[in-house]
Structure formats: C-alpha cells, structure tokens
From TrEMBL:
Pfam families: p450 (PF00067). It is a single-pass membrane protein. The keyword Nucleotide-binding does not apply. It comes from Dioscorea zingiberensis. This is Cytochrome P450. Its cofactor is heme.
Length: 407
C-alpha cells in the first residue's frame, strides 16, 4: 500500500502560513499525512514512510522549557494528570477566574484602557494597540499564574526574561506542590501558552471590529441593551446575556485561529484510518498533527468560510451548536484542540476575551481606521499566528486606527 507520490521537503518545526498552505496542498495530493518532526524540521510524509521512520523524543530533557515534566511535553501519565489537574483546578477554573480573580481582571482592563487613552490623547486619537494588548494580557496571565496582582514592571520583565521566573515563585495555588524543576518549566509554559494566543486573538478581534463597522455597532448595541446606562464596568455575569459578543469571539477564533497546528501528538499504538477509499496505517510512535486552521475553514461545513460573519454562531447559523471544547457534537472547528489534550485554558481564554472586548467596546465611541488607511489582514506565523502588519504598527503602516473615546 506504499504511496509513491512526490514528497515535499521538510521545513522548520514552526512553519509559516505559506508553508501551511503548501501542506494543505500536499494533503490533497498525498492523502492523510503524518508529520515527522526531529526537533528542527517537520516533514509531512505519507503513512508508509512514517512506518519505517525513527521518531525520538521531541525535546531535549534538561532544557528549561522542555524538561519533559511540563504539561504539553509529558505523555499521558500520572505526572501529566497531576500537572493538568493543578492547572485546571488552581488557576484556569473559570469560576475562580470570575470570582477571586475579578480584581486582577479589572486591573488588566484598566491597563488596557488607560494605555490606549493616554496614547490616543497624545496622538490625536491614533493608537497602536498591539503594545497595550500585550501589556494588559501579560499582566492578566502572569498575575493569575503567580496568584497575585504583579507590579507592571515585573510583568514586563517576566515577559522579556522568562528564565528569571523562578525567583518570583510564591506559594500560591498548586505550584508549590510541584518539584522545583517542574515549576521552572510550568511557568514559562503557562505564560507562553496563555499570553501569546490570547494577544493574537484580541488583536484579530479588534482588527475585525475596525474592518466591519456594522459588526462593531451591532455589538455595541447588544452591550448597551444588557448594561443600560449603567456607568462603570460590564460584569462577568452580564457577559452571559451577550450571545452576539460570544459569536464575534468564536468567529475570530474560527477565521483567525491563533494556532495553525496543535502541539505534536505521538501515536500510542498502530492505528488504521480510512481516507479516499484507502486504508492507511499510522504507526505507533509516529508524531502527528492537525491543521487546526483548515478545520475551521472547511467549505463543506462553513458557508463562505473566508468571510467574517459572527451571525453563523447565532440561532439558525451553521455554527449555532459549536462548542469550542469539542464535546460530543460534530467538530466543526478546534482552535483549542480536541480530546484529552485539549487546551485546559479554553474556558478562561474565552471568558477573558469576552470581558476585555465587551468593556473595551462599551468604553469607546467608535473604533475606526484613519481616513485613507485600511486594516491589513495578512498574517504571519510566529509562536502563534499574529497580524503581519499589526494595527497602527507605524505611522507608515496601512493599518492605523483612530480610537474615538468618550471624554
Ligand atoms: C485564545 C487563547 C488560546 C488558544 C487559541 C490556545 C490554543 C491551544 C492549543 C491549540 C493547544 C494544543 C492542544 C493539543 O495539542 O491538542 C493548547 C494547549 C495548551 N494550552 Fe492553550 N490556548 C489558549 C489559551 C491558553 C491559556 C489561557 C492557558 C493557560 C491558562 C493555556 C494553557 C495551555 C496548556 C498548558 C496546554 C498544553 C495542554 C496539554 O498538553 O495537556 N492556553 N492551547
């Protein structure tokens, strides 16, 4: 059953978007593909080749980030279960995030709004939101991670020098249950895994709100209909009565999935799969991955998949029943992965995005591009998929935005 098709050459373990599309193309030519990764390169090959390949450990033990005791590097085992349980019950539990972390949440929002307002005031309404977003989300996630609201300077240092994290460990949450080397790898991992995809998602959402003024207005109307003329913040409880807000966030996660791939998975035992009337063997030990983006852009599931249309997640839309946690229903998108290794921060990430976006939109009069400028929606693959030309990246970029704030 050997597949003789021409194989594309290997590429770096974090492929660019262009390479991803090459892979998608390969998928069409080669049928089901197994990605073999050797740490530096990632080669899509048909199952038959995979069968004869050697796959060693993904990472070098001992490396700070990758000592194989961190959640995403650990195979399914009691250690993985313990690490994951600690994270889920101690840090990312959405109830906890909505109650005991309210103060941190508010402070993060405050950082975002203050920094944007200051910049808008200094620059005649023009802002470059990417830095404010990163600062605010970093503050939020690091504070949740360490269990205390950290000083903003500290947040910056952590963001820039994660190696120094150990000196900041306090005895909150579950971290003190872990051996020292696990804490070292847990923290950078928590921060890498939580800050960057959340930043990317927030920036994509803002861009879409700039690009689609009608969606921005509809969202604003929904928020106002729930909070009325109440001065002050939109509460977490109020978010539950904003289905359109959730639809905007889901649509952004579908259309601009922050992760193009999952963290590679290793096959535990030989598995036979059927595709295009062929039976393929995925051999035990092979490293496999999913093209997360392509799942959310499948034209047989989504009408005009490239369009940004939050209405598809409203009653009657093709995404009405979608659950980003990929429960028992058909999987139509998987921005957080699926199954046992699904992102444990998914609920918290969605909640934080709802909170920040609702309050941000409630606070502004209008978010729009500077006259004559347009939002550039090209992307680039870094650790996660970010905007190639961030909103208002420089005075020469095409994507300056004009933030008109209430006085
Ligand atoms: C919009 C935000 C986020 C996105 C799009 C995202 C996406 C993902 C994806 C695609 C995976 C790989 C799943 C797999 O390999 O099957 C993952 C894993 C992971 N994520 Fe997230 N994530 C986000 C936010 C967060 C947050 C807020 C946290 C922590 C609080 C977090 C912690 C983790 C961890 C620890 C893993 C590894 C899980 C394991 O291997 O068992 N993520 N995430």
């Amino acid at each position: 059953m050997a597949h003789q098709a021409f194989l594309p050459s290997g590429t770096h373990a974090s492929p660019s978007t262009c390479q991803v599309w090459t892979y998608l193309h390969s998928l069409r030519r080669l049928g089901p593909v197994v990605f073999i990764m050797d740490g530096r390169s990632c080669t899509p090959i048909p199952y038959a080749e995979a069968k004869s390949s050697q796959t060693g450990p993904r990472h070098k033990p001992g490396d700070l980030n990758t000592n194989l005791h961190s959640i995403n590097n650990t195979s399914y085992s009691p250690v993985w279960r313990l690490l994951r349980r600690n994270l889920v019950s101690g840090v990312v539990n959405p109830c906890k995030a909505s109650k005991s972390s309210t103060q941190v949440q508010r402070m993060a929002l405050d950082i975002l709004l203050k920094s944007l307002k200051k910049e808008a005031k200094a620059n005649g309404g023009v802002v470059v939101p990417v830095h404010s977003i990163q600062h605010s989300v970093s503050f939020l996630m690091t504070s949740l991670c360490f269990g205390v609201a950290l000083d903003e300077d500290v947040v910056d240092k952590i963001k820039n020098v994660q190696v120094g994290l150990l000196s900041l460990v306090d005895n909150r949450y579950a971290l003190n249950l872990l051996p020292k080397e696990d804490i070292v790898s847990f923290k950078p991992q928590f921060l890498d895994a939580s800050i960057w995809p959340a930043c990317a998602a927030l920036e994509w959402i803002m861009s879409r709100l700039v690009k689609h003024q009608d969606i921005q207005q509809k969202l604003k109307k929904e928020i106002r209909s729930v909070v009325g003329d109440k001065k002050g913040l939109v509460d977490v409880e109020e978010l539950q009565r904003m289905p359109y807000l959730k639809a905007v966030i889901f649509e952004a996660l579908r259309r601009h999935s922050p992760a193009h791939f999952l963290i590679p998975h290793r096959v535990k035992e030989d598995v036979m799969i059927m595709a295009d009337h062929h039976e393929y063997l995925i051999p035990r030990g092979a490293v496999v991955n999913y093209l997360v983006t392509s799942v959310g852009l499948d034209a047989s599931v989504w009408e005009e998949p490239l369009e940004f249309r939050p209405e598809r997640f409203m009653p009657g839309g093709e995404g009405e029943e979608v659950d980003v946690n990929c429960g028992k229903r058909e999987i139509k998108m998987m921005p957080f992965g699926a199954g046992r290794r699904i992102c444990p921060g998914s609920d918290m990430a969605v909640l934080q995005l709802q909170y920040l976006v609702a309050n941000f939109v409630n606070e502004i009069i209008e978010l729009k591009a500077v006259e004559g400028m347009e939002v550039d929606l090209s992307d680039k693959a870094e650790l996660f998929v970010a905007m190639k030309n961030p909103l208002g990246h420089s005075m020469h970029a095409l994507s300056l935005i004009n933030l008109i704030l209430y006085p």
